[in-house]
Write a structure and sequence with these properties.
2 copies of one chain form a homodimer. By secondary structure, chain A is mainly α. The first copy, chain A, contains 21 helices and 3 strands. In chain A, β2 and β3 form a beta hairpin. The interface between A and B is large, with 39 and 39 residues.
Chain lengths: 506, 506
């Protein structure tokens, strides 16, 4: 009995790995589309991605997989729910159930459509031409709505179904509660900051930073943090991202502005956090849930931890400030460590999410969470999106975009059909705060190590407590195990008070 | 009956196109491996390519394809052998027959093995360490021998089977005859050149040419010739190549030396010739034989035509010499057109094939043709390859490589399992000479157009006579139709005499 279950399990894992290899070709095609693909190739790229999406879908929904799952489920092999076998079966089964609800034609159509939609979006953003994007967005919403409904099944909620793809187990209702508590506590912090007469000067960040030198600096920082450049790359891409092609191949893309150091640098740190996680996942388990992150929120948490908790800390800059001065003597040469550190911790309402500070970031996310639910439910039409976006920014952040490029065209997620993705950013902040507090408690000399340029204690702790576990638990359960309590926004609020109280005197 | 044949035909073409899209993902992965893939990613890349190769093979050998072919073959639809339908059926049927002889496991194994072998080869070449490459080469030869035997079938010849993959219909026996005639007529030309006291000075080509400027110059030349950069790219890669990803996406890679202008420039021209052909193939027919070249020899012919027949002509440099002087005033500013033109037409025995001149090039190819037949038949062991290579160079070109990097490690074809590929280079030269002579006869003012920077008459003629026909005929038949006689080395000899006689005074 067990022996037969064992055989089935091995066949299933072999099959899963085989299809993960195929699926990973998609990652190369995405990366290429973002970096080097000639414009003329976009239609063909859509066809390629559609073909691969169809094949990957075929695996997830194949009767063979169903049979193999059935042969293992309930067997002794999966009795211990934390064993790799049980974890893999639990998650492969969940994926099989969900994917079987999607017709292959829909999967292929979405891949084709969103490839083209992303190009249209990029052009529309560049030319500040929302009208050009709107009809394509309508198509993407229609196909995403159909996808969400199919995934949700009868009586289920389409938006929740999308959300669950990125953050298994999460629901919009639950997250609405989290957001409302979090925002309620963020507002007084933001108000105190706005009212404060203290205001770090950021002119140093807006000086001239040669882009080639920025790239080199980013490479060397990423390497110092532990990102292995023989098994990864950092390139210029349209949107900053990190793509896990497969074992030995993790690719970061980033963008740079010559007169805005933070913009490029903190995005790069963010993606490096993703990259460290991907490189830390079990390579032997590649293609199985044990070799995968439990959720996007957890992945995002890793990125936010390095970007903000580490990357905006004084200890971090104690080490890197000197190197930065050497690379950019004209911009930073005369600027003291403390002033530079204060500059990268300036809090200010801005129009764009990726460059926003830690305090306002979650308000940007809350706006998108609200708008995308309305787009999927149909309560908001794409015609009214630009206005709704402006209203929300005015209400939440007190500022209004001058045009759609810095308004509702700023992010490419919707063009990619990635609904339910945004809220995982805030979950990531929450997870990061909890995990970072636990790491600091466990590793007393952390700041001293950072100041000496040694980031291995934190990477080691994350490897031990997060990376190596893959999808052993849900993200919520992982947080509970590592920190002793479930996901909770209070660690984040505490962190923000602790960091910005002294700077702004509240 | 015809209507049912028509339906089957349409299903077959849809299937072929679908699988061509999948197969084209392989091209992106190759391109990426050659340009940007981190070293650590090579094992995973091998797994990706193996998975895709297996799927593509599955298509070619599927019973569904066999049934559809059977339903169309012999029907009215394919009565006219030159109709697109007949051409597509003829070639899909041939591919089906051949691919059905290969077990899928062998196809996957070869894809996996050669991906890794190419990396080992590149490292061995860099470090001049043949011993490191030899065991991998043994493995590649073993799998290629098995592949050749399977393709050839009982009693067939393994090497001929490889050759036929690249040049349908060609046999080693036939090509041996061609090579022996060609080489017999090349030797007196080479002897006359070697004996001549005239010797164009090439110092101008060895001055300092900033690599970034070379890249820009190459881009602008390619665009002038007609290569569409919105539907293609030119990047730096380990080996110069041209990859046809799909409609709207043709990618050239090239390499540059700061102190060797010809090396980078003529390779780039060569790849541009490939690129013009790929961009000139029927996009609607992509994924079917009507949208594909009839053979590698024909493709190579296009490349060699632009590299040598056009690119080393005085008319070409009448136009580009001025631009080159502007870009590299220090290197070329004082050098007259005639001296520059003479420099790029210097004939000299060199150790490396891609940079060799038009006269000696075919001797390089003849050496490889001889050695690879012996490797596949087993008459030559890999242990003896470096010595056999040296002996052949001494015999044919009177020079001997100082080490294996410039000897038997110089080309990556064998690492890639591409046996039978080299002789198509010489076929390409033969085809190019015949086609170019026909084009000149048909287009009297060609040199004047070139001198004015207008290359569209030649591109137009090639589109009309070659590109648009795809695989309508075999290469030999296409040559016959366009030039009035079958493939024949005499046009090449005539071209060489015509060009080098005046330069070297014979």
């Amino acid at each position: 009995m067990t022996s037969s279950a064992h055989k089935s399990y091995q066949s299933l894992i072999a099959l899963a790995k085989e299809h993960a290899v195929l699926s990973s070709c998609v990652e190369v095609l995405y990366w290429d589309a973002d970096t080097f693909m000639p414009r003329g190739g976009v239609q063909h790229r859509g066809a390629q991605l559609a073909a691969l999406a169809g094949l990957v879908h075929e695996f997830h929904t194949s009767p063979k997989v169903a049979d193999l799952l059935a042969a293992v489920e309930g067997s002794d092999l999966v009795r211990d729910p934390e064993s790799p076998e049980a974890v893999n079966i639990r998650e492969l089964s969940r994926q099989h159930r969900l994917q079987s609800r999607l017709p292959r034609s829909l999967v292929e159509e979405k891949a084709r459509l969103t490839t083209v939609a992303q190009q249209v979006w990029a052009e529309a953003k560049e030319e500040n031409d929302y009208a050009r994007f709107q009809p394509v967005l309508d198509q993407v919403i229609a196909v995403s709505r159909a996808e969400g409904s199919a995934l949700a099944g009868p009586g289920g909620d389409a938006y929740d179904a999308h959300l669950g793809q990125w953050e298994p187990g999460a629901t919009a209702a639950e997250l609405t509660a989290v957001f409302s508590q979090l925002c309620a506590e963020l507002r007084p912090i933001l108000n105190a900051i706005t009212a404060s007469r203290k205001r770090p000067r950021t002119a140093v960040l807006k000086r001239e930073y040669n882009v080639e030198k920025q790239k080199m600096f980013v490479q060397s920082v990423a390497a110092t943090l532990g990102f292995d450049l023989t098994c990864g790359r950092i390139d210029v891409g349209v949107h900053p991202t990190c793509i896990y092609v497969g074992p030995g191949d993790v690719r970061i893309t980033n963008r740079y502005s010559e007169r805005d150091f933070s913009r490029g640098f903190f995005c790069a740190l963010h993606e490096t956090g993703h990259g460290l996680y991907d490189q830390g996942l079990s390579q032997e388990s590649f293609g199985t849930p044990m070799g995968d992150a439990p959720s996007l929120g957890m992945h995002e948490g890793q990125a936010r931890m390095w970007e903000n908790f580490v990357g905006r800390s004084l200890a971090f800059w104690k080490h890197f400030h000197g190197r930065l001065r050497e690379v950019f003597p004209e911009a930073v040469g005369e600027v003291k460590l403390e002033s530079f550190h204060a500059a990268v911790n300036r809090v200010e309402s801005t129009l764009t999410r990726p460059e926003s500070d830690e305090v306002t970031y979650n308000l940007h996310v809350a706006i998108r969470f609200e708008l995308e639910r309305a787009l999927i439910s149909g309560a908001l039409s794409t015609r009214d999106l630009p206005g709704a976006w402006k209203d929300a920014y005015k209400r939440e952040l007190g500022i209004e975009p001058a045009n759609d490029s810095e308004g509702c065209l700023q992010d490419g997620h919707w063009a990619a059909g990635m609904f339910g993705y945004f809220p995982t950013y805030t979950l990531g902040n929450i997870y990061a705060a909890q995990l970072y507090a636990a790491a600091r408690a466990a590793l007393p000399g952390l700041d001293e190590s950072f100041a000496e340029g040694d980031f291995s204690p934190l990477v080691g702790w994350l490897r031990e407590n997060v990376y190596r576990h893959g999808h052993r638990w849900t993200s919520a359960e992982l947080i509970r195990r590592v920190t002793g309590s479930g996901p909770d926004h209070r660690a984040l609020i505490e962190h923000l008070r602790g960091r910005y109280g002294p700077v702004y005197g509240f």
